Each structure stands twice: as C-alpha cells, then as structure tokens.
Amino acid sequence: MTVSAENTLSKSLSEIVVPGVDRPLADVGRVSVASIDGERAQVDILLGFPAAGLFAELEARIRAAILDEYGPRKIEVRIVTKVTAHGVQRNLKPLPNVSNIVAIASGKGGVGKSTTAVNLALALSGEGAKVGVLDADIYGPSIPLMLGVSGEKPTSADGQSMTPPVAHGMQVMSIGFLIDPDQPMVWRGPMVTQALNQMLQQTRWSELDYLIVDMPPGTGDIQLTLSQQVPVSGAVIVTTPQDIALLDARKGLQMFRKVNVPVLGIIENMSTHICTNCGHEEHLFGSGGGAQMALDYDVDLLGQIPLDLRIRQQTDGGLPSVIAEPNEGPAQAYRRTAQRLAARLAMQGRDYSARFPRIVVEDT
Ligand code: ADP
Q1: CB burial string 68-84: b at 16+ within 10 A, e below
Q2: Which of 82, 185, 232, 322 is the most exposed place for a label (fewest CB within 10 A)?
Q3: Ligand 1 centroid to 343 CA: how many Å?
Q4: Ligand 1: which residue has its CA nearest to atom 16?
Q5: Which of these, 134, 129, 149, 264, lies nearest to 208 by C-alpha position?
Q6: Does 308 contact ligand 1 (Cβ within 6 A)?
Q7: CA angle 236-237-240, nearest 5°?
Q8: Phi then psi dihedrals of residue 290, to 5 deg
C-alpha cells in the first residue's frame, strides 16, 4: 500500500464521529496505524479519553467505513485509550502523580454536586481510567459516606505522607479525615486551604489519570483561594435548572474564568423527574436552564441527570448508582456525562511542563 493511500484511509477514519461524544475522531484521539492491502486492513486508534463502553460501537463504525470504501476484507481494529496531562494555571505546578485534576463546583449547596462527583468518578473508572477522589467540601464532607469508607482513615508509614483509603478501586481523601466536622465554621475556614494543600501534596496518589475534586459550594473567599491554588486542568459546574441556582452557577463559572481555569462544561442535575408509578416525565424545576446557560457562556452542556429517588437512596447508602445499577437510566446518564467531560478535556491543550525542564535563573 502506498503512503498516500494510507494517508487517505487515515484521513477518512479521522472524520468518523465517535459515538457518545459526537465528535470527529481527530478531535478526541488519532489514528496511529491505518494500513490496507488486497486482503487485510489494520487500524489502530488512540483515544484521548476513557471510553471502554464506546469501543464496540466505534469499531463497528470503522469497519463499516472501510467496507464501504474498499469492499470486504479481513479487518483488524485495535482501540486503546491514553489520557494525557493537560495544562494547569500558569503560575502553578501540576501534581507529580496526577495527570489531570478536575474540580466539580457549584454556585450553591444542595444541588447534588457531591453526588454527581462520586458518580462521575466511578463512571470514569468504569470506562478504564485510573481515578482518585478528593473531598474538599468543608461544609459537608460527604464523599466517604457516599463511597462507603466513612469509618476509615488515611494511614502513614513514615509520619509524613498519607496513604488514602481505597473505595471501589479509587483512592479517596477527604477534608473530613483531617478536620473535625463539629468545629465551628469560623475555625474551619482559615484552616481549609492549608489542609487541602496538605491533602494534595502529601497524599501518596498512585499514578492517576484523573483526580476528581469535590469543591466547597459557593463563590466566596475560600472557593476563590482554592481555585487559585489547586492546579486544575478544568472545572465543571453542577446546577439544577431553577433560575436561582442558575444565577449562582453563573457566578461559579465566572469565578473560574477569572482565575484562568477552563470551564469544561455544565451539568444539569435533577433535570427531569420520572414518576416512579407511571413513568411520566416532568420538569419539576423548569426546563432548558442549563442549555441556555451553556449557550450564554459558550460552554458545553455535558449532561442532564434526572431527579431519581434511586440516585439519593443508592448514593447516600454508600453504593452510588453507577455501580449499584450500571444498566439503569441514572448510571447511563452519568456514564454519558463522564465520557463527554473527559472528551472535552482531551480536546484541550496539553501540559508540556513535564517534557521541558524548568529553567531557573539564579543570581550567583
Ligand atoms: P451538594 O454536594 O450540592 O450539597 P449532595 O450531592 O449532597 O449536594 O446532594 C444533596 C441531596 O440530594 C442528597 O441527599 C443526594 O442524594 C440528593 N440528590 C442529588 N442528586 C440527585 C438526583 N439526581 N436525584 C435524586 N436525588 C439527588
């Protein structure tokens, strides 16, 4: 096969729309091998985001495209994921063992931010990524409960670093492990950035593709400081469709923009309610709010999660919906949202700081 024929094949495969995220392959991955001769075709695809659940459908689309263009032959398709590290705020250094920190934020409390964070983390892990979760929500560190490790604590072999508990295959650190939740807020506030820095720097994170950080809700001083000090690759805003929550969400989005953290998109939680008796779908909190906000700020609406009793029961019971009922509607909604989030991040600039040595100019 000639080089130009390979290029033609590679180019047409790059235009295939990746299922689930509806982006051309060239946007979220690349064709690393595309060869074809009389009897055989060999295609290797490198995806930039974890998508085990999409491989079969993507492979089918690749086979159909080759069949269509070149006729029947033996086709071998290999698809692998490689998550790269993406850039962080210019004045910060990425964490050594963590490719990407993703902040999950909300303009106000009670919109389902923590619930969304744990389910997204589990969905990314289920799609094949190495994932950790960091609970930075000082107002109510609920992640250990949601992941069923509330009785556990990090351990330390050397008195310096902390080894975090592991839940459902993910490392979990929580501000709740370090601060006394009964302490009044006035004390907790100033301690929090210090405690969070400690959790980030001194935790023995194993090589992670994603560290999902559940941020404290709101846009006050604490939140601003955290968004300036945590080296994040991107932030996601969780909101309900209600106007008031949306107003708060807008403030949250602007806060990240102000400190140069890319906003990967918006997740509309409690989007619709499906009646447990009759299956009727209702927009309890209004409809279209998240989509409108996404349009206004030119960001993606990454997903819409239904208001579903099972989500509350399962997540508050320590077994979030993504693993409790992986084939049901809520789990599917979380998985789709996680894939879109990760694909969005894959489209962002890479982090080159690890490849180039830091140049330090010293006065001697
Ligand atoms: P936040 O972190 O924003 O304060 P939580 O994640 O703690 O909010 O959620 C608040 C409550 O709402 C919890 O009891 C949670 O189980 C419930 N909840 C969150 N999202 C949903 C949903 N989509 N459907 C049903 N209940 C939900």
Answers
A1: eeeeeeebebebebebe
A2: 185
A3: 25
A4: 312
A5: 129
A6: yes
A7: 140
A8: -65, -40
Q: If you search the block for the tokens 């946007």, which residue do you land on?
A: 27
Name all domains of the chain by residue range, CATH numbers in brackets.
3-81 (3.30.300.130), 98-355 (3.40.50.300)
10's tokens: 């590679």
Contact of 304 with 272, CB cutoff 8 Å = yes
129: tokens are 């990524």
Residues whose CB is less than 8 angstroms from the CB of residue 197 and which lie 6 or more positions away in sequence, other chains included: 229
Each of the 364 residues of the chain gets a pLDDT tens digit; together they read 566 777 889 999 999 999 999 999 999 999 999 999 888 999 999 999 999 999 999 999 999 999 999 988 999 999 999 999 998 988 899 998 999 999 999 999 999 999 999 999 999 999 999 999 999 987 788 999 999 998 899 999 998 999 999 999 999 999 888 777 676 666 566 677 788 888 899 999 999 999 999 999 988 888 888 888 899 999 999 999 887 778 999 999 999 999 999 999 999 999 877 777 777 777 766 677 888 899 999 999 999 999 999 999 999 999 999 999 999 999 999 999 999 999 999 998 655 554 444 445 555 4
Q: How far is the CA of 109 from the centre of ligand 1 (A)?
A: 10
Ligand 1 close to Cβ of residue 307 (< 6 A): yes
| Residues 241, 242, 246, 248, Cα dihedral to 10° | -130
